[in-house]
């Protein structure tokens, strides 16, 4: 009598194939998740950097052309005279939930506090009264984001004053 060979796979072969596909699926999923996490972090860092650079840019333009500086009071504040608004100031406030960089005469602050959390801010002058240079340093992090996707940025700028 001849043996009839049955076509098909054994249970062991099927389990090996399923195991190999499961390992490949896990590796592919992890790669996609790492890519998505990296994209989110880059996005958060870009938004945060853009927001901080905007604030520093506004401050830099106004301070560069201002006159009558005074940094002798609060280390987080600079008072100056502006051609448009007269006597004004920039003030860093990192207390409470509404931390921001405030500009006297402007409702609200320079930063979008819905997206960022200001962690440190200093405004210093090389000479407290009638300075030649002002240094602004800002540290902030993405608000309501934690873990590997969170972003933290530290920016600093030296502003050379033109009207002195």
UniProtKB/TrEMBL annotation:
**Membrane-spanning segments:** 7-28
Q: Which UniProt keywords are given for this protein, alphabetically ordered?
A: Membrane, Transmembrane, Transmembrane helix
Is this entry keyworded Transmembrane helix? yes
InterPro entries per UniProt: N_methyl_site, Pilin-like
Q: Has the keyword Endoplasmic reticulum been applied to this entry?
A: no
Give the top-rank taxon of the lineage listed in the UniProt record for this protein: Bacteria
Pfam families cross-referenced by the UniProt entry: N_methyl
Protein name according to UniProt:
Type II secretion system protein GspI C-terminal domain-containing protein
